Amino acid sequence: MSLLAGYDIVIELSNELVCELVITNLRLSGAKAAPPFEFSVPFKAEPGNASAGAFHLNVNAIEVDLQTTRPTTIQIFFADASAEIPIGTIRSLDGCIEVPVYFPYILTKNDEAYISLDLSGIEPWRIAFTSESRQHAEAQLRGKALSYSHFEASCQETLAEFIQKQGLLLIPTGLTIAA
Fold first, then answer.
1. Can you give the residue ranges of every domain in the chain?
2. pTM (global) more than 0.90
3. 37-46: b (≥16 Cβ within 10 Å) or e
4. How far apart are CA 159 and CA 129, in angstroms?
5. CA 119 and chain centroid, separation
6. Could you read off the pLDDT tens digit of each residue along the chain, which spans 179 residues?
7. How far apart are CA 155 and CA 127, in angstroms?
């Protein structure tokens, strides 16, 4: 067996390069998503119910962690987010959306190589509010008809549906593949 394990060429992409490629090419609902940026998604007040408000995110950073075991994790950091729900607006939410993704193949299209980033079937993923944001949200929800655990579950469902609707994203590598 050769040093290339039977392949004609082996290319290793650094964590920094993949992060830059993701940030440069990521689109959410067709809009470029390079930090800092804002986006809103319809918010479900109760998991499984129709939307009843909006979740507004102010994204200030995106990181890609290739060092973990599969899947790779894309972290979307946000600050000063808010959720408009029927009982009022929950403000000052900071945290991170951790999205596990697989970069299963380098795909070719018109002799160009792309990293495929499939968001359609991602499970499990999570939104992690900072402890300060959690305490702030719990205080805002105290005495209301919605508990913090239901609020957090609604945030999870709202963002999961939004991210999964993004489907397959192709990230150009800048490499040309000739047959």
1. 15-173
2. no
3. eeeebebbbe
4. 13
5. 8
6. 567 777 777 777 777 887 888 888 887 777 788 889 898 888 866 555 556 788 899 999 988 877 656 677 888 999 999 999 888 899 999 999 888 777 656 667 788 888 777 777 666 678 899 999 999 999 999 888 888 998 898 888 888 888 888 777 788 877 777 66
7. 8
